[in-house]
Amino acid sequence: MSNLLNNGIIEVATLTPTSIQIGNPKYNVDKMLELINEVNQKNKIGERQTRIVVYPELCITGYTCGDLFNQSALLNSAKKELKRFLEESNDEANPIIFVGMPIRKDNQLFNCAIAIHKGKILGIIPKTFIPNYGIYYEARYFKPSIYRLDNEIVMYGETVPFTPNLLIEDEQTAAIVSAEICEDLWVPIPPSSYHCLHGANIVVNLSASNETIGKTEYREDLVKMHSSKSMCGYIYASATSDESTTDTVFSGHSIIAENGYITAETKFMENIDITYGEIDIEKCMNDRAINSSYMGVQDRQEYKHIYLKTFEPKSNKFKSNKELSILPFVPHNIDSRSEEILHLQSIGLAQRLKKIHCTKVVIGISGGLDSTLALIVAVEAFKINNSDIKGIIGITMPCFGTTDRTFNNSKNLMEVLNITSYEISIRDACIQHYNDIAHDIDVHNITYENVQARERTQVLMDIANKYNAIVVGTGDLSELALGWCTYNGDQMSMYGVNASIPKTLVRSIVHSYANKQDNKIGVILFDICDTPISPELLPPNPDGTISQKTEDSIGSYITHDFTLYYMLRFGFGPKKIYDLYINSMILNAKKKATNEDTIDKEKVLKDMNIFYNRFFTQQFKRSCMPDGVKVGSVSLSPRGDWRMPSDASSEIWLRELVEIEEENKLK
Q: What is the pTM of this model?
């Protein structure tokens, strides 16, 4: 999928004319042409790359014509104006177009979507489910698609498909498009469920959904949930407020969704003619491939396939307008979501302790973020089990790199939380071990550092044995991905509560928790959040501050977590992740009114190179990682989400980064 045009991201749009005349196809087509010609022009000059556009249901006549649908004058005018629309919308930069109108066939009238490209009708999709309840009387005029006698119709001398089971495949973008109409989405099993199971990755819906109190939110939920279950893009275009208000009000609600998330939408009664949005086809297809239940349906149907190729882009460089958070692991509603995350972590630990009949835990408290979160989780777990808080044994183990700031924070935090605390210096033990293995204490290499990490783990394990407790691991998801932990040192514990919490989220959870505590606890937690991330295995600076800052050694955790998320969650390659990340940085810079030229692309590539190198070479540490509850969509547990050989090659991933670097030099 990595060779897809624009990294598999395609631009789509809804076209909802804000001015229509009910029962006047000529006027309506005039307004429709204004919109499609604007799209064509923007495609032609390279301002946009819109591949699919969708008009509302029965847009050529208007949805609220009532018994006028039985008038030959209206039907003949609609057919005449459709022909004019075909001729005048035809353009080399045409997207695939869907318009709505009534079609008479086999002595019956059908409510149809017409699929068009470059002046030709690709096919006609009759509505499957005809509502005839409440305010809807469609069965008075229209028949459902099952009443058709065959799967073809002659339009303007051309025989074209006439079936709901139509798939339009764009070779340019790999989009496979199907259509349904309004009510089709609201039934227990929409036609698009089958369309997607037979290959469609984008569904369009020509709709005329009226407004009542709360219906906008329901409609949003419906589209989001359906696109999530079907793992597809969904383009929903509803009739505008210029429809008849005899008994109902319409709002022109447009929704563009992708796999459960709305990427573009009009606000209530906003009356916008054109709504642009983006759909990531690769994301949807990768999710389908991973989900082993997706193709479990046994009901196979016959489908008509139409193949075409939309326009060549003016530029090979597609600039996405989709707003992606530069912190994908951090929810927008972090305060409420952090409670949920913390509760899941706490339940995991509480249940483990309950099942093994254990009432004590041992945690190494460093004064850093990870051990702080682990301690908070332990406190909450003990509350769940109604266990004595003194059963939490916190141990701070100062050594050569410990600073006053982290040492004091660790001591003070244990004190205010009222847990059992010990201070055990490992300095002498490490010096003895350096002597035992003939290592010069002035040589500050990996041996110098790992001796300290393993000594700390030994102390924790032995204390756990002494008190019949378990060691709670503090390492987080980012460290596991990078292998930024000492094998058989902090890599090992008896239960890892932070195993699926990345570094960027750890800080957010601790900060959110601090906001809800009294000032005595909050002050300590806020200072821990502001402390530079460090293993503190090297001596401090002369002024006593931290000298060994993790991100100086391995790069930005923001970059690493972004890469980790899109690599594991969606299976994207380095080039796509790089483009998404840079685009997120650009949009972020615009929000802050800063110059996007300040973005250090070389630094981003360097950090990504570190990520892929370490991710592959450090798998052996993950292959034997302790148990730890999964709380998000991404996990590296070898027993569940991630099974990878420890000796796999990273060559093709690193080669993509080299290609990006070479492309950047040519600009």
A: 0.91
